[in-house]
Amino acid sequence: MIFRSVSRAMGALFLCVLLLGAAACGGGGGGQRAVAPSAPAATAPGWAKGMVTVRAEDLPQQARDTLALIDRGGPYPYRQDGTVFGNFEKALPRQKRGYYHEFTVVTPGERDRGARRIVTGEGGELYWTDDHYKTFKAVVR
Question: Which partner for 20 in 24, 26, 96, 110 could form a disulfide, CB atoms 3.0-4.6 Å apart?
Answer without folding.
Answer: 24
